[in-house]
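Progress narrative, Year 2. Work on uracil phosphoribosyltransferase from Lentzea guizhouensis advanced from sequence curation to structure prediction during this period.
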Amino acid sequence: MHLLPQTNQLRAMHTIVRNRDASREEFVFYTERIIRLLVEAGLDLLPFAPRDVTTPVGATYHGLRFAEDLVGVPIVRAGESMEAGLRAVVRGVRIGKILIQRDKVTKLPKLYYSALPEDIASRHVLLLDPMLATGGTALAAIQVLLDRGVVEENIVFVTFITVPEGIEAVCSRYPRVRIVTSAIEERLNENAYMLPGIGDFGDRFFGTDK
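Result:
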């Protein structure tokens, strides 16, 4: 579990996006700033290889090479709000898609669609979804990746906010999956809404909230 440092700047941005009266422009602008921090933190968990370069003054700098074979996989639709943040810092990154929705009869997560690189089993995956609440969707998406041969420890789940219940659900079943988030909420209420919460992230981001 990797929580972003709870700086005053981060708390100020959260104050804006959690405000029910925030405009969509404010919500998008400040969530995108936080998403960029989350993506950078997720990338920092990937493996790096040694690399030496010669500096302009002829000296050798013993540095590192970024991880290769990376793919971003947003969970449609809310996870697509995080895609631009990944593309902004990883040029040419491959993007897969997973669509999971709750079945109206069984109330269980159901896979409706997935489009993933053929060689995803050999790649590191940043799984993107802004909200980890009960954990049902996340568990289903992780299982899709595992079924395609992705190694559990090669999955980094990047989420905007979560709750202890969601963390427990994911970590208890997939302990080698790492989670990166900007906030851990107090709890879920009786309707499985996070408290204090942020509302429906996808609706607020894409402007489809009522």
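The chain has one domain: 2-49+65-206. Residues 2-49+65-206 form a domain with the Rossmann fold fold (CATH 3.40.50.2020).
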